[in-house]
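Key idea: predict the complex, not the pieces.
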Amino acid sequence: MSQLPKAPAPQAPSRAATKKELPKHLKAYKHIWVFIEQERGQVHPVSWELMGAGRALADKLKVDLAAVVVGPRWDATNQVIKESFCYGADLVYVVTDDVLADYRNEAYTKALTELVNTYKPEILLLGATTLGRDLAGSVATTLLTGLTADCTALDVDAEGSLAATRPTFGGSLLCTIFTLSYRPQMATVRPRVMAMPERVEREVGRVIEFPLGLVEDDIITKVLKFIPDRESSKSNLAYADVVVSGGLGLGSPENFQLIRQLAGVLGAEYGCSRPLVQKGWVPADRQIGQTGKTIRPRLYIAAGISGAIQHRVGVEGADLIVAINTDKNAPIFDFAHVGIVTDAVRLLPGLTEAFRKRLSPHARDRLAS
Amino acid sequence: MIEERFDAIVVGAGMAGNAAALTMAKRGLKVLQIERGEYSGSKNVQGAILYSDMLEKLIPDFREDAPLERHLVEQRFWMMDDHSHVGLHYRSDDFNEERPNRYTIIRAQFDKWFSKKAREAGALVICETTVTELAKDTHGKVIGVHTDRAGGLVRADVVVLAEGVSGLLGTRAHLREIPKPANVALAVKEMHFLPSETIEARFNLKGDEGTVIEAVGTISHGMTGMGFIYSNKECISLGIGCLVSDFQKSGVTPYELIERFKRHPSVAPLIEGSEVKEYSAHLIPEGGYKAVPQLYGDGWVVVGDAAQLNNAIHREGSNLAMTSGRLAGEAIFQVKSRRDPMTAANLSLYKKMLDDSFVMKDLKKYKDMPQLLHIQSQNFFLTYPQLVSKAMENFVRVDGTPKAEKEKATLKSFVSKRSWSGLFGDALRFARAWR
Amino acid sequence: MHIVVCIKQVPDSAQIRVHPVTNTIMRQGVPTIINPFDLFAVEEALRLRDKFGGEVTVLTMGPPSAEDSLRKALTFGVDRAVLLTDRYFAGADTLATTYALATAIRKIGTTYGTPDLVFTGKQTIDGDTAQVGPGIAKRLGLLQLTYVGRIVSLDPEAHSIEVERRSEGGVQHLHSRLPCLITMLEATNEIRRGSVADALRAARAEIVKWNAQDAGVEDITKCGLKGSPTIVKKVFAPSPRAQKATFVEPSDQPPAEALIAEIFEGRPKLESKLAELARGF
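Result:
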């Protein structure tokens, strides 16, 4: 369920041409907001990444960048407010209430919707996480405004409108989307798509508090309990420094252990391309690409992955992409930095061993001496 | 068990199955068609040739909405050695007629359309359902089918087996034998996508014109086989097929074969820069007349590739399949309308109708050809192409050698490779098989 | 109990190709499938129906050919299929899509009985937004439970439901009220195979086809391209990187070592970082 594929050519230009001056009541919408996502006092890094992107937009438009912090009345929330300034907020809107301790759609939608209706931002950015997507859809529908999901680039055009770029047609193409005569212009961005900005120690600035106006009895959905993921079982793929992944070129599910072994030696996370998830070889939370995780590791090793665009958009942020593939014409070599044309299944055991040797403390001592 | 009983169950929704289902449904029979794939054509990535005449007999106005690629105005035959080809090239503007005779099609799309026609005529089509077994009564008469879905036996007066060359139902039920490796070719194919303008420029075409190239020679490594290149609208179907028995003997893999074919200097420029859709393999019956099995029995008939109805010499399969499906449907309708039971004796009408049609007549004409080409495959697919190519080079290249000497050298090369008696023998055998 | 499941027919994106010159989509021969995520929603709905009785209606919006997907849903044993198709719906973004679907669900309610539950998949594989489910819920005033991995319990009499919902860092156990909208997480169940009787019924079934008017759309300007606040201004292929990959072509050393040498060539920081990681930091 989502946007129907839009036939780009015939309609887009005709409607783009109809872009008219904003109605007067919408001109009051100003400034850029970033929703700071937190779960039990832990801010999701995507929020800071969005602050970085929001800062750039705000500077271009010469408007303020505001962080929106919604949460319970506890110390952790105050800490989040402070951090928001360190990541570039000019001001912070705060809705605190103990009924906001856990994320619940009803309460959070009310908080954010009323805040928007009161203070009128022109752009509202959220992380495309489970929380962000749950919230953004409700808020945009309530406000009857446009929402562009899963953007890979954000910019403003000459007239100051948000130009949100996202993959389309299963990631085969990119499209740039505008929100016409509606405000705010909403967009979500997936973790790791934007670079993490530098944190600069700053004093707490202007904080605007807003009352929620809800009591627990008003909220129908109750959180019976919350079971956090055990650190060990949770894949930290999106934020890993080194990622090794495999694709169909591995030939069989058994061969995927070669990927896990190399990842083990490198202290890396492992991932895979979409077909492997579809075939049931690897669990879905390990999928890298447009429909899986976006990664920005320092080193990414792709073995037996052809590099369809939908995979490419998930890995382009990596500092160094190393591709192993039998087909020298595979698209992955168009965006990899280092490539080797060979059968990954044959190369991987030796590569794992060679890395083990090269990276062992013993070997390094020898090198040093 | 399903209470309902059908007049006929058609197993398979390829050319033959769809033709049978459509024919019977149009005649008002209660038809159930069962297809293994997600939809008719879903398992078929073949680019193919469609022959208008046979389809017109089923759907006279098919040109209105059938997914046709290009109508053929040109046919090229290539005899290839490793670096060259000698070609025969026939092109005629007469083929740019109002109702063109042949078209390239993409089977996945065409079959889907064909199946829709059968459904519109009233056939009930269920997909993603595999018929696992033919149900027989105590006298051995086929009375229905079992499928891989829960619900048990589905009954019908007659079962039309249109399950393709490797269909196991008929062989498992001992209605026919598993085809011998010498009677089946394995063809590997690829779809090469290119902008239509590029295809038109490379093949010298305009608008919806299309061309077909069929090639024999060293590309098949001395095996009995043939390569082909079809121009579709926005893609080129390219493939090569050889007898399964030859693959077994030679140890050459189909993958190597198609890679080599694609790299051939006559082929590579045609597909350069294309985007390849993954390659697929497909079995083609090649046994000809002598391999045609028993075609009918108590409560069943077999049609299309499953019945080895394929003219390997003219590369015609789909029209034989379509015609056999149509005739089976007609025969069943006639038996039904006489209120006769679907016994072997009554269903022999199908065989009679097939014998009277071009299908059996053509197959009979070439009955010795498959064997000849097979036994002599080294000569016909390796030695001759090389010799012919050498002869052409000798003829074309100007290097100061007197023409008489050149001719002598050419003749000598033929005789030394094949001997006079060998050459005459081959010519005679070939002429006989063709006649 | 009446359950409505929204599904979408999507192009099998693995088979989409882009025209190398014009950068437009080459649709020729691209097969369509039911959005794979929606199948988990269909199966969950069927399980609830099997347990509590009632009916499952599938709904889709799309071109007339979307009938194929609905018919397929019927082979799973779904009771009814509704196709919302009208040229006015074309070009809809999420907001316009939710307007049309919510309107149709209301109509389904008045025609076949008010739904107790509405299901969607967690997202589609073509649009990928995960926004339509929440949008429908908001428009219908339903409570929304997204990314549900398991329905722990359901009491149709008491109108209560308990679910496990995936959140970013864990699993929420939620208690809520019917009617509500659930977006189902992937890999939570496996779509069933209908019986021969289901397949026959599906082949015969009349698909309910509604245009905008039939579905009860009152304001056509809220549909399709007209009703979409967002517009696609530009579609383009990602620009290729200026430089192709440096190929490692080992000659005098094993390929693995040649590759590692190339990786660390001029990147001492990367090597020390890797050594650190390898030691388990």
